[in-house]
Every structure is written in structure tokens, then in C-alpha cells.
Amino acid sequence: MRRLLDNRWGNTYEWSGIDEFLKATRIPDGVHRIKVGIHAGRWQALHVMVRLLPGRALTVHFYGAQTRRGGSDAPIFRSLRTSASLNASFVLVHDPSLDLDDELGIAWYEGYSGFAAATVIRAALSHLSTIAAAPRTVLWGGSAGGYAALRHVGSIPDAVAFVWNPQTSIPRYLKAPVTRYAMTAFGSPELPPPDSISGDFVFDLTEQARPNWTDAPVVYLQEADDRHVREHLAHLLAHLDPQMGKEVTLRDTMFGHITSNFYLHLSHWMPGHTPPPKAAVKEFLNLLVDTRLTLEETLANLETASRSMIRMTAPPDRKPSSFELVAPVRQPPQNLRAIQWGSRLGRESVSEMRAHVPVTVSRSILGQSVIAAFRMRAKSEPKTYLRLKDVRSPQHRRSILDDRRGSARAALLADPTVDVAVIDFLEEVRGIAYAGAGLTLTEHRNLTRADGHEVTNLAFGSAKHITLWRKRLARMREDLAAISTRIVVLDMNVSALNPSDWQWLGLNTPPREVIDAWVTVMEEARTALPHAVWIPLEETNQPLPDRTKGIGRRIATELLKLNIMPRN
């Protein structure tokens, strides 16, 4: 080992190879550059940043995709502040493949032709754990970093993986970055079969006969609105429990143990492939590095952290969080299975319904109109999407993203075991906008087409709106009938609502012409849904939030009258 000049990360130490590093009986704090060989005429190295506190847990962070490096050859280390704040030793690992090309931003810590990175990483981490006398090693990271944590967790003594939104198969990730990695690392647009190249390479954690991660403790956080649920999480869970591999694609909230070693938390925190809030990550990490409890005891008590995370991530229009706080991994077999779709009124009323009838609410869909969800498009979606830069509200953004994907219809049809869909139509007052090629959006204020074309508005209750409304309702009725799902509609007289009620709903008070047209629009709905159960909501002077308990009780009463039996 030789000490190099200090750099932005502190002292740097260079090792001639992994063998020299493994013979060391003392590893000083700082950055360690472990040479791994020559590639394309240049020395390559594995860089790790280390701070060791003997006798404490060891945390190891792997990062996800990185932006271009701008010609810098300095190693990348992420989450230093979080790592340093924990009562634990830490190691930050730089992905050595990113040194091959400034344009390469993601390589899953797998290495490249002539260098199987996993072998060196595994040896270095095991050695650091031994030197630090770490009673536990926590491998953590999201996305590609989560892939690396899952990849190594079963190979390092006393290790647990803490991951969020990880890839579990490199080929199932987005084509462009996978192709760039394959070209840079192996000189081909396709990843080679692992058994055709020298060294320990794994490109898919779900295709192995007995993956390492199945025998190791795993804590797995997943944003329910991320495509990774279907493309990555479902495939992984199929190894442990085939039924759960399917179930996870049908629910928007569930947490608990898939097995005694595998803890899953699925919920909404921000649409898409986004990391959890830092406070939630820190809470889970603090629990995992606390070695006063055994790992088995820690894993058994993670539901407290899940409930805390749900509370801190619930936006105002998704309260209360009682759906999520009692969302078991395994649905009780005697429960009805329901989907709630509509506004905050329906969400909170269905939440109260649970006190009177055993039910599992698989999804709660807010902010999306029937016309948007059941749109009938003759052409594919336009490539010039609407810009969202003028949309300030996160809830507004979410409703737009949901409308683009048609998630309400997709969620309903994806789960043929749904017994009841509880719907209120209050979101319809947001209005309808045409954005070209059949794309419709709700809440269309302040939106412009990316190509500059105008957005055409349809007035609520107009002849064109009624025509669209009638067709979409018919399609909804047919789709739900095909999967034998009963429809329960909360029938609200919107003229009885005051501005504070609309504010609580998260909706702007509709103009007079919308309120006047409401009865006509709902009559069309009654005609289109002849077999639905319509529950008239009594007019009262009570504020809308105070009425949800009574509405929930009425829904439960109607479901019991229908004598619907759960199909699960």
C-alpha cells in the first residue's frame, strides 16, 4: 500500500491488487484504490471510501444511475452524509465500469470483459467486515445499487440487503442504457450469456436456480407506481411465492414478511422510479444498524417503520392512511376485495367502511375521470406530450400522469378477483381537455402542447361531453361485467357542497354551469349503469369530512345486503 496525495475525499491509498488489500490487518479511513488490471491500455481500479468503527455494524452503499462525468476521472461516492450520520462503520463503493467511458452512467457493478467486478467487491467487503469486527453488514442502495446489494447479500457473512426500486434483471431494464453498457463492457449491443465469458457475471437475479438472495435477509421498498413492480419485483417474488408475485402487481399498498427473511414494503411516495424520502431511508437504516437486537428481532419489528413511512409520504388528498396502515402482505381469505376510484370523499368513506365489513382495498385511485380512464383511442398516444412545467401541485401532476397511462382501467382489469368497485364521480367536475390523437386530460389549466398546438376544451354537460361520457360509461360497464365486478356508486348532490367542502376534496369550486349540469350528467350515468348500486348521500349541514363515517357504514350495509362473497 502507498499513500497518495489528499484529494477532495481525504486521504487516498493505492494497493497493487486485491491480494495485497486482503493481507492487510489494518485499513485506514479514507479512499482506497485497489488496482484490478489493465483494460484498453489503462490501469483500472476498484475505489472504495472507508470509515471503520470497530465492533459496530458496517453499512455498504451502492449508487444507482449517474449523469455523465464531464471528463473527470475522480471516483463517484454517494450518500456520504447519510452514511456518516449512522452509528456504524461505512463503505461507499464506486462502480469501476463507469471509468471506461464518460457517457456510461449505469453498469450494475458487474464489471466488463476481463474483469468480473463481483469477485473483487465481495472479497473486499468481506475483508473490511472482518477487520472492523462488524456484527452485521447492511448492503443498501436503490435502482442499480439495489441490484448490486441483492447480488452480494447472500455471499457476505452476516449481511442484510436494504433496497428500493431495484432492478432484478439487467436485460429487463430500459433498452438504451443496457445497450450502452453491453457495448462499453463487452463490445456487443447484447449482453453475452454469463457462461460464455470468463469470471463471475450475473445479469439476471431471477433466472438462477437458487439465487444467493433467497437465503439472506432482504428489506425491499417499492414505489407502487413504478414500472419496476411488474418488470422486476414480481419476477423476484415469484421465486419465493408465485401467488405473491402476482398479488404485488394488483395492490398499491402492502407491507410485511413474504418469508421470515424477506420484508416487503409497497406503497406510493412519488410517481415513477423515485427514491423514498430520505427520512424514511434513515429510519430503516437506523433500525438495521442497531445491533442491540438480533437481526431476526429487527426484521420482525419493521412494520413500525412502514407505518411511519406511509404517514410521512401521504399527500393531503390521500388521508387518512388507514388503508395503508393495515395493508397486510397476505390478504385474509374471508375478506372482500375492493377498489376505490374517485375523489377523497370515496377514499375516506371506504376507509371507514372497513370498521363494518371485512375488506381489502387493493387500490385507491384518485384524480382521474372516467372519460380519461376509458378513452377509446384510434391512434397511438402522440409523441409530443403535454408539458408539466406549469403544474405546481404534486397531486395535480399525479392525476395527469395517471390519466396518460389510463391507470384506473388498467388497475381494474388487471385484477379479475376484485369483488366490488366503489366509485364516486366527483372528479368529473375537473373538466375534459383534448390534447390530440385521443389523449384526454383532467384539470387542464395552464397546460400547453409541447408542439405548440392548442388544447381543445369540452364544457361539462355539453352535447359533445355527454356523447363522450355515455360511450366511456358503456365501456366501463362492459369491462367490469366481464370480470364480474359489482359497481357501487356514491350519489352526491354537488349543489349541496360549499367552498370548504370543495377545498377539502382538493377540487376547485366548479362554476355554476357545471353544478347545473350535474343532474343531467348523473342521469346519463344511471342509464348507462343499470345494475350498479347507487347509494344516495343524505343532504346535511355537516362538513363533508364529518360525513365519511356515516357513508362508510352505509356502503358496508349495502354490501352485506348484496351478499357478495369473496372470490379469493
Structure description:
With 568 residues, this protein is of the alpha/beta class. The protein contains 19 helices and 21 strands. It has helices at residues 18-23, 80-85, 117-131, 144-152, 175-186, 228-240, 242-247, 278-289, 295-300, 303-313, 322-325, 344-353, 370-373, 394-405, 407-414, 463-482, 499-505, 512-528, 548-562; strands spanning 2-7, 10-15, 30-39, 42-51, 58-62, 89-93, 111-112, 115-116, 137-142, 159-164, 218-223, 254-257, 262-267, 336-342, 359-366, 420-424, 432-434, 440-441, 456-458, 486-491, 533-536. The strands form four sheets. It has an eleven-stranded mixed sheet with strand order 1-2-3-4-6-5-9-10-11-13-12, with helices on both faces. A five-stranded parallel sheet has the order 15-14-16-20-21, with helices on both faces. Strands 18-17-19 form a three-stranded antiparallel sheet. Strand 7 (111-112) and strand 8 (115-116) form a beta hairpin. Helix 8 packs antiparallel against helix 10 and helix 16 packs parallel to helix 18 (512-528). It starts with a strand and ends in a 6-residue tail after the last helix. The model is unreliable at 378-385 (pLDDT under 50).
List the defining traits of the structure above.
568 residues, 19 helices, alpha/beta, five-stranded parallel beta sheet, eleven-stranded mixed beta sheet
